[in-house]
Amino acid sequence: MKRSMTRMGVALVIGCLASAAPVMAQWLKQPTAGVPRTPDGKPNLSAPAPRMPDGKPDLSGLWQPAAILIGDLAANLPKGSVPFQPWAEKLYNERRANDSRDDPTANCIVGGVPRSDAVPYPFKVLHEKDLVVILYEAVHSYRQIFADGRKLPEDMNPSWFGYSVGRWEKDTFIVETAGFNDRGWLDNFGKPATDKLRVTEKFVRKDFGHMDILITIDDTGAYTKPWDVTLPLILRPDTELLEYICNENNKYFDIIPKAVDK
Amino acid sequence: MKALRFLFVAVVVMNTSIAAQWLKHPTAGIPRTPDGKPDLSAPTPRQANGRPVLAGLWRPAPGLVGDMTRGMKAGETVPFQPWAETLFKERRANNSRDDPTARCVVGGVPRSDFVGYPFKILERPEMMVILYEAVHSYRQIFTDGRTLPKDPNPNWFGYSVGRWEGDVLVVESSGFNDNVWLDNAGRPATEMLKVTERFVRKNFGQMDIEITIDDPKAYTKPWSVTQQLAFQADTELLEYICNENNKYFDIIPKLPVSEGGSQRQ
Lengths: 262, 265
Hints:
The complex is a heterodimer of chains A (262) and B (265).
Chain A: H1 5-27, E1 61-65, H2 86-97, H3 115-118, E2 123-127, E3 131-136, E4 141-146, E5 163-169, E6 172-178, E7 198-207, E8 210-218, E9 227-235, H4 252-255
Parallel strand pairs in A: 4-5
Antiparallel strand pairs in A: 1-2, 1-9, 2-3, 3-4, 5-6, 6-7, 7-8, 8-9
Chain B: H1 2-22, E1 56-60, H2 82-93, H3 111-114, E2 119-123, E3 127-132, E4 137-142, E5 159-165, E6 168-174, E7 194-201, E8 206-214, E9 223-231, H4 248-251
Parallel strand pairs in B: 4-5
Antiparallel strand pairs in B: 1-2, 1-9, 2-3, 3-4, 5-6, 6-7, 7-8, 8-9
């Protein structure tokens, strides 16, 4: 998170947050209904996970990712354990050397999957009967996960978020995503992905206040084998998403005018 | 906006041939005629509490996004304050070159309701969410009984609360910044803007949004337009990434700093 676009993005966001901070307190503190509370009224984040009418954990809520993986998705893995293909490692090293100047998110393009999961701003999960929607504060974007039993289409429109389907295995919601374009970055440092990327996210709501996403990167175009990371989330009660408009006063093109047109 | 419109057309044309291969997924739970086609003239579906269901994929009838007065009743005119009319005429004369959406900023309320691309309404007990295809944006409408905050953070979509009046969901929004444009033509708005949207589902396939603009700083009295929506069966939202290959800054590289104060310079 200290590098890249995200250097601009972070500066921008910090600017926004700083200017918004005194205002926030006046309107942003809305008690979240249905949150278990301790006798002193504080949210009880270690209470059991809520359940849907069908008995599955209800994934709904405002969640904030731990700020550990957005810079380096492999931050918690042993050094050197990302199984790069040689070309992908070379490109990654170039991006590290030029401080991620070609990062698409510096151009206010969405992070996609799994990168949007890892941005340490809140996202809201709406768990519907056959559909899970994630509203990301970052770049004011969203994503649909179809959970009505459909399969991944065979020939998808290549996109940044890909096409996502979810199914339950006991209490774990398993989301498979494919149909990516070949321009996605997995993290701010610039780990590449191709249109062969398949991402599996296992959503495990451990209790009321904690959820993990176990993420598997399977991209035979860029990596020699699948690799896994775990992203912890914490519930954010009694607050709300802010309106994050990346294009508002974005200075990226002033600083690096032609970075994305190469 | 000319650049943006051009982009819209290019994106839509590019997607058409691909769309047929994966985009046609049957929408579950909708009424169909004996030949399997969606029965768009079927009655309005109802929730368990008797209220109309508003959820679904809807597409605004084209027209209002360019010029929202197309949705006014015959004979009505926009009650501009003099400064607002002057600014509007400037924007017409320079072909809306300062339009914030040309920079891929969201349209806000009510403009996002007018854009002729689909949006998906999700209804939950405590809120309604609109996922707009346009600019890949979204909006929350709180229906849990809360009132509008007194001092909200000014933004593009404002802050929205909804309540039922009979079969009509009445949504009130305020808390806008003063950079919002109400339509492509450039009708201005200020921080005084309050928007009321009345969602009226007429049958399975049709819904109206009756929109009232109340901005005493820019207009001498409230005025209203009606946006018609058509249900979109057996299809889905596309991923609309405005910043992808946006040529606006190549064409108009140095926008003047104007009334909005946040224009690129």
